[in-house]
């Protein structure tokens, strides 16, 4: 690649980087306190539906081993 | 001043602007905010099933949306479809290339996909009388690290060629290529609303993408090594990442920054995989040290550990109904815990 092509590739890359940074700089941000509160709220609302958190009664556990049968 | 110099200056100024905006939004951190929340109970899960059948390292697993079937991929050159309730193998799909790194189950249950060092994503129909290859998606110039179906007609892939791509499964062609990472893309996760996805890469960055317009919307930094695992928090407002730097992090999308980290001085193994319980409260993270640690996502404390594998935990997954967690390992076994 000629050095002219290389430097114009570098400029194109730099332009893309600046364009991307502009996009990312311009987003609206909420405060971490609000973000945390919303995440905590979601967790607490859904905790009762979380089997791994609440525990699973043996009768409702599809993975609970069935008692072995003995053939008499 | 040359254009190059000018742009370097502008890039630096924008980075400073972003850092300042993040700092301004950073009025607390998640652990402090959650200090009043009751601690998660000590989580002690038992192994309910050990699925034996693969003959080599397992690299990936994915649950079907029916909460019963799952697919696993091993470098023994096979995909196995398991009935997790009975522990039986339902199907075996021989792979053209044994160097598999990922597998995926379509939400419909009709299709599965695999890919790896062959740089391709191969899609199989499970519902034909004999399992058939329906498409070979061939355009990436690097290994396929992860694949996720949006539907029976669209699939997202991430690749060692630093790109992610959205494919049309009817034409077999890439509809959109997502360009911005400067390191191998290692993982991806779809947002609950399916409008966006996040990717993690060897450039230690996580990026949020709009699926339809192909744009990178946000970039999350903080990790100091490859990001191997990524997941959305179930509300869709946060993501969790796992890295070779031995930590996991939660980034909030609307605050545009890290809000909590999951790390322990005693832990010096990389994170390979992660999965969340349905409320998002528990993070199951698989590590190179053969364990899967369970973290309280809000408080950042370790609340349990899944020990039982004899080699690296390479993949973890929680089904949609949240009734268990599955771990897959280089020891060739999958374990189901609850």
TrEMBL record, chain A:
Main location: membrane
InterPro entries xref list: G-protein_gamma, G-protein_gamma-like_dom, GGL_sf
Protein name: Guanine nucleotide-binding protein subunit gamma
Bilayer topology term: Lipid-anchor
Keywords assigned by UniProt, alphabetized: Cell membrane, Coiled coil, Lipoprotein, Membrane, Methylation, Prenylation, Transducer
Native source organism of the sequence: Cirrhinus molitorella
GO annotation (BP), single: G protein-coupled receptor signaling pathway
Family: Belongs to the G protein gamma family.
Gene3D superfamilies the UniProt entry points to: Transducin (heterotrimeric G protein), gamma chain
Annotated localization: Cell membrane
Record function comment: Guanine nucleotide-binding proteins (G proteins) are involved as a modulator or transducer in various transmembrane signaling systems. The beta and gamma chains are required for the GTPase activity, for replacement of GDP by GTP, and for G protein-effector interaction.
GO terms assigned for molecular function: G-protein beta-subunit binding
Location of the G protein gamma domain: 7-72
Subunit comment: G proteins are composed of 3 units; alpha, beta and gamma.
GO CC field: heterotrimeric G-protein complex
Residues in the signal sequence: none
Claim: Membrane is one of the keywords in the record: yes
Residue ranges that the Swiss-Prot or TrEMBL entry lists as coiled coil: 4-31
UniProtKB/TrEMBL annotation, chain B:
Gene Ontology annotations of biological process type: signal transduction
SMART domains registered for this protein in UniProt: WD40
A Pfam family the protein falls into: WD40_Gbeta
WD repeats: 51-92, 137-177, 178-219, 220-261, 306-338
InterPro entries: G-protein_beta_1-5, WD40/YVTN_repeat-like_dom_sf, WD40_G-protein_beta-like, WD40_PAC1, WD40_repeat_CS, WD40_repeat_dom_sf, WD40_rpt
Ubl conjugation recorded as keyword: no
Keywords attached to this entry: Repeat, Transducer, WD repeat
Family, similarity comment: Belongs to the WD repeat G protein beta family.
Protein name, entry field: Guanine nucleotide-binding protein G(I)/G(S)/G(T) subunit beta-3-like
């Amino acid at each position: 690649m000629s050095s002219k092509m290389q430097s114009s590739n570098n400029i194109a890359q730099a332009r893309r980087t600046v364009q991307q940074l502009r996009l990312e700089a311009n987003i609206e941000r909420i405060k971490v306190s609000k973000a945390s509160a919303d995440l905590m709220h979601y967790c607490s609302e859904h905790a009762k539906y979380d089997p791994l958190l609440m525990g699973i009664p043996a009768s409702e556990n599809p993975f609970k081993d069935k008692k072995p049968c003995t053939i008499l | 001043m040359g254009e190059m110099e000018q742009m370097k200056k502008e890039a630096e100024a924008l980075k400073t602007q972003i850092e300042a905006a993040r700092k301004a939004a950073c009025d607390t951190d998640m652990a402090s905010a959650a200090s009043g929340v009751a601690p998660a109970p000590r989580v002690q899960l038992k192994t309910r099933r050990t699925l034996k059948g693969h003959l080599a390292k397992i690299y990936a697993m994915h649950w079907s949306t029916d909460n019963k079937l799952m697919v696993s991929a091993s470098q023994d050159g096979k995909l196995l479809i398991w009935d997790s309730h009975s522990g039986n193998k339902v199907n075996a799909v021989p792979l053209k290339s044994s160097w598999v790194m990922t597998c995926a189950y379509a939400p419909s249950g009709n299709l599965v996909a695999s890919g790896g060092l062959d740089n391709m994503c191969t899609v199989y129909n499970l519902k034909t009388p004999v399992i058939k290859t329906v498409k070979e998606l061939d355009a990436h110039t690097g290994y396929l690290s992860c694949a996720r179906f949006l539907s029976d007609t669209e699939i997202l892939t991430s690749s060692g060629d630093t790109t992610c791509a959205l494919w049309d499964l009817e034409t077999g062609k890439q509809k959109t290529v997502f360009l911005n990472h400067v390191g191998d893309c290692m993982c991806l996760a779809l947002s609950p609303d399916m409008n966006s996805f996040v990717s993690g890469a060897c450039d230690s960055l996580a990026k949020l993408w709009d699926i339809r317009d192909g744009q990178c919307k946000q970039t999350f930094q903080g990790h100091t090594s490859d990001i191997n695992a990524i997941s959305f928090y179930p509300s869709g407002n946060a993501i969790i990442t796992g890295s070779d730097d031995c930590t996991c992090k939660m980034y909030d999308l609307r605050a545009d920054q890290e809000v909590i980290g999951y790390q322990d001085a005693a832990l010096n193994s990389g994170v390979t995989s992660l999965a969340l319980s349905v409320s998002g409260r528990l993070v199951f993270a698989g590590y190179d040290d053969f364990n899967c640690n369970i973290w309280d996502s809000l408080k950042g404390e370790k609340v349990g550990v899944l020990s039982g594998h004899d080699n690296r935990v390479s993949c973890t997954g929680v089904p949609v109904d949240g009734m268990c967690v599955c771990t897959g390992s280089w020891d060739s076994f999958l374990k189901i815990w609850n």
